[in-house]
Amino acid sequence: MVREVNEDACLEQPERGLWAVADGMGGHALGEFASRLVIRSLTDLPAPQSLAQYIDDADERLQGANRRLRSEAAQRDVPIIGTTIAALLASGRHAACLWAGDSRVYLCRAGRLRLLTRDHSQIEAVRSRRPANSDDTLHRPPANLITRALGAEDTLEIDRATVEVVDGDVFLLCSDGLSNEVSELAIEQALLPGNCRHATQTLVDLALQQGGHDNITAVVVRAEDLCSPDRTAMLPVL
Known about the structure:
- By secondary structure, the chain is of the alpha+beta class.
- The chain has helices at 29-42, 51-76, 122-129, 176-179, 184-191, 196-209; strands at residues 8-13, 18-25, 82-83, 85-91, 94-100, 104-109, 112-115, 159-164, 170-174, 218-222.
- The strands form two sheets. Strands 1, 2, 3, 4, 5 and 8 form a six-stranded antiparallel β-sheet that branches. It has a four-stranded antiparallel β-sheet with strand order 7-6-9-10.
- Helix 1 runs antiparallel to helix 2 (51-76).
């Protein structure tokens, strides 16, 4: 509702178990360039032989994208051309999150929402250093100051986390244009029915209703195991 240029980009390749969200920075065309470059770097990943190999291949591509963004910034004589990344990779009964920045991956399982990633931001760094009972609203830094991103430094560290996937798990990948505007309770309620398309539209609409101050990207993924004993078989009535 505010910005003229969409600096977000996303990737959906369910047949290959690959999804990603990137949120560019650097202003207008530079942020857009960064997010799309990083997403393109993941689009033709080799078919995974294992989840560990999939993670390593994705990390290698992201490292290459980081080097390209650093080179582009030097050639254009600008301080930074950068982007966040949050990716979900699935192989067999396991999935992995890879991330840098404040784009997020959530998991909704059995009616409970859990944040799988941890923001690389100044506000998260301050929160992690404070006692659990302290007032989090005091001396809080601006929410948009991130501490890690592709293109920000010559050396890139990608965080990763793995989970065992069960039938009915629903994952949400999103940029901070969504997570800054929509409460975790509202996110949980949108994901509970397990309808990916409806949940995506509901979440984007909620962020827009809160003002749509930033670009909004949401990718919703549902895990379905047709062989799971927990699934109910539909039998004909005789």
